[in-house]
Amino acid sequence: MSTVLKDSTEILTARLAKLGPKTIRFDIGAGGGPGLTSQDIAAALGMTPAGLGRDMLEFVWVPDSFKSKGRREALMSRLTESQLLEHNERERVVARALFQVAIRGESARHLYNDALAQRWPSLVAKAEPLEFARGYEVIRLGVLEELRYPKQCPKCHGLEPDSSKGAVKTCPRCLGQGVVEFGNTRRAQRFDIQRSAYIKTWKQPYEWLLARVREEMQEAVAALCRRLI
């Protein structure tokens, strides 16, 4: 992995400096020594617990490591598994709520209505021949695209502006992150549907997977940071 990481060290350390603990400097060594090398980062990544978080760190920051078909398919399988598990859990919640209505009557109707509101679209688009709903694949591809190619803040263009007194101030639009969320209209275009249809049908599972992946990445970043201190 160190060969792949060699040309990505500067980008990776810059990202870690923004996403990691604010008191850690990744561009210099302890006591003013040399900065991190590609070997340092490769070793730290290798010791970071395997899983979706680490895969996404490499996918976003070291894309060359995903040139092989096998690695891409493995990442898509992890994302698909996350979607399937969450979809099935929501279906179980609907079934349990329906059972409560059957036992308790209308007094449990609110449980069923709440469960329906959280229910995702069916995984199966057609039974014969079996065809899975295209929307879930669109979500996976969309989440990968947004995380690898985030939308630059239109106000500060990814840079913290200077105040009139020369001190750096935080951009009010992106809060210093340099990037902003993609809007519902842009996401609806991926599905080739109207914005209103996206919000009604696919917004919830889309934002769930995006949040889940970000959470996994943050945990991986924390583990990686601990090994780079």
Summarize the structure in short.
The protein is mostly helical and about 230 residues long. Helix content is about 60%, strand content about 5%.
Task: Tell me about this structure.
The protein has 229 residues and is mainly α. It has one domain. 60% of the residues lie in helices and 4% in strands. It contains 10 helices and 4 strands. It has helices at 2-6, 9-19, 38-47, 52-61, 69-104, 109-117, 134-148, 184-191, 195-201, 203-228; strands at residues 124-126, 131-132, 151-152, 179-180. The strands form 2 sheets. Strands 1-2 form a two-stranded antiparallel sheet. A two-stranded antiparallel sheet has the order 3-4. The longest helix has 36 residues, at 69-104. The chain is globular. The two termini are 20 Å apart. Residues 1-11 and 17-34 have low confidence and may be disordered.
